[in-house]
Amino acid sequence: MKRILLFLATNLAIMLVLGITASLLGVDRYLTAKGLNLGALLVFAGLMGFGGAFISLWLSKPIAKWTTGARVIEQPANAGERWLVETVARQARAAGIPTPEVAIYEGAPNAFATGATKNAALVAVSTGLLQSMQQDEVEAVLAHEVAHVANGDMVTLTLIQGVVNTFVIFLARVVAYAVDQFVRRDESEARGPGIAFTITSVVCDLLFGLVASIIVAWFSRQREYRADRGAAQIMGTPRPMIAALRRLGGIDHADLPKSLAASGIAGGGVLALFSSHPSCEDRIAALQSA
């Protein structure tokens, strides 16, 4: 419940901020007496699409800590925590990035990386993963997350999300305006958008958003393959990553909050097109053929 409420509150706050910004800039008035102002609509769509994506990226690390209860290891309390911090630091040096914050959270096997930039990243691992994997497998999982940070995957996916969001908002309203004009073609004194515009906008937002989700999920799956290869390079061999994936494929792993789903080591779903992660079998095959 805490995760759901936080997710809803965050998104409502983002939409409120963006809505006020659009109103102050005047770009929310893209429907004029003369018709649809495509320039204003494009600016509005870009503001809402990229604005929402980048605010979410900026908030990603604190939200990740709140939703998972992740505890950042400031001073290692035992040998295990010391090994985690030292391993991530060594891998970060090998990848040529600043050392991310390292955190542990209670939960079933999973891990994730998040943060707005390479200089402000977080790598977190669950207690379930630490308890269910061999040390070299855990090291491979950590290397996978470090590779995500080194590849700039959080920013890349944010840019992709911003582009598709912009096109969804823009095209939905262009189609809605065309439908509204067709429906009211016999109304000689019609002013402003009719109910057809509102209904069509909502329907098109949902339909185009569905297509956008498929596109974003495809890019996310490609990131996973690349992070797997990055882990193999950091480790000097793909064997530990393959072993970790085999173990993940044979255990029940945790579903991360929606905002972190694409950042975890484990993922998947019934519908492959909408999955942020390839199957473990496909990832193993890709590593073996690399």
Please outline what is shown here.
The chain contains ten helices and six strands; from the N terminus they run αββααβαβββαααααα.
Structure characterization notes:
The protein is an alpha+beta fold. It has one domain: 2-Layer Sandwich (Zincin-like). Helices cover about 65% and strands about 5% of the residues. The protein has 10 helices and 6 strands. The strands form 2 sheets. It has a 4-stranded mixed β-sheet with strand order 3-4-6-5, sandwiched between helices. A two-stranded antiparallel sheet has the order 1-2. A hairpin with a 7-residue loop joins β5 (about 110-115) and β6. α4 (about 80-95) packs across α6 (about 135-150), α6 (about 135-150) packs across α8 (about 195-235) and α7 (about 155-185) packs antiparallel against α8. The protein is elongated. The protein starts with a helix and ends with a helix.
Helix-residue proportion: 55-70%
**Main sheet characteristics:** 4 strands, mixed
Q: Taking strands numbered 1, 2, ... along the chain, how are they ordered across the largest sheet?
A: 3-4-6-5
Strand-pairing-aware structural class:
alpha+beta
Measure the end-to-end span. 42 Å
Cα-atom radius of gyration = 22 Å
| Mean of residue pLDDT values | 85
Poorly predicted runs are none
Give the count of structural domains: 1
| Percent of residues in β-strands | 5-15%
